[in-house]
Amino acid sequence: MIATAYNIERALAFADLVIASPASRGEPAPCLVTRDMLRRMKPRSVFMDFAIDMGGCAETSHPTYFPNPSYVAEGVVHFCVPNLPTIVARSATQALTNTVLPWVLELAEHGIDAVLKDNAMLRRGTYLHHGRCVNPTLSGLFGLEPAAVGASS
């Protein structure tokens, strides 16, 4: 289902476990779950907010840490531990390496300027290039005019 307020409220009403992880690239997580929605959940059901690294996606979410990773709000158990991949560091490192290695090899073979010219995906993921901010979202946060990739300093 599409994550509309109506659909989220309906799903929460019958869920025993909710795993939420909405994200907007370069933006804080959208707050999709209101306190009132959580009140409609079954008592002692569990809400896991994996968007807590980006501010959380529920009005009742706040970061928790091991060894006390949960708390109860509105009768619902919340688990909001940020940066969970660090708990499985070896697996997370292997997954990240497998994902990034092809790009690293491409950069090593062709150089950053050629790769950014030809690879739109890496160009979109570039924040700084030759000392200039080229990411519009990051530029906006600091009141800068974004530079074009490849623009001279």
Would you give an account of this structure?
This protein has 153 residues and is of the alpha/beta class. The protein folds into two domains: 78 residues, 3-Layer(aba) Sandwich (Rossmann fold), CATH 3.40.50.720; 54 residues, no CATH class. It is built from six helices and six strands. The strands form two sheets. It has a four-stranded mixed β-sheet with strand order 1-2-4-3, with no helix packed on it. Helix 3 crosses helix 4. 14% of the residues are buried.
Keywords:
Rossmann fold; 13% strand; 2 domains; alpha/beta; single chain; 36% helix; two-stranded antiparallel sheet; 6 helices
Please give a quick description of this structure.
The chain has 153 residues and is α/β, with parallel strands linked by helices. Helices cover 36% and strands 13% of the residues.
Task: List the SSEs and their pairings.
Blueprint (H helix, E strand, L loop, with lengths): L4 H10 L2 E4 L14 H5 L6 E4 L20 E4 L2 E4 L9 H22 L1 H7 L1 H5 L3 E2 L2 E2 L2 H6 L12
Parallel strand pairs: 1-2, 2-4
Antiparallel strand pairs: 3-4, 5-6
Instruction: Name the average pLDDT.
Output: 91
Oligomer: single chain
- Low-pLDDT parts are none
Q: What's the helical proportion of residues?
A: 25-40%
Category from helices, strands and their pairing? alpha/beta
Total domains, how many? 2
CATH level 1 name of the largest domain: Alpha Beta
Tell me the span between the first and last alpha carbons: 47 Å
- Helix and strand sequence: HEHEEEHHHEEH
- Provide the CATH architecture of the largest domain: 3-Layer(aba) Sandwich
For the biggest β-sheet, the strand order reads 1-2-4-3
CATH topology assignment of the largest domain: Rossmann fold
Number of strands: 6
Rg on CA atoms, Å: 20 Å
Number of H/I helices: 6
Strand content: 5-15%
The CATH superfamily of the largest domain is identified as NAD(P)-binding Rossmann-like Domain
- Sheet with most strands: 4 strands, mixed
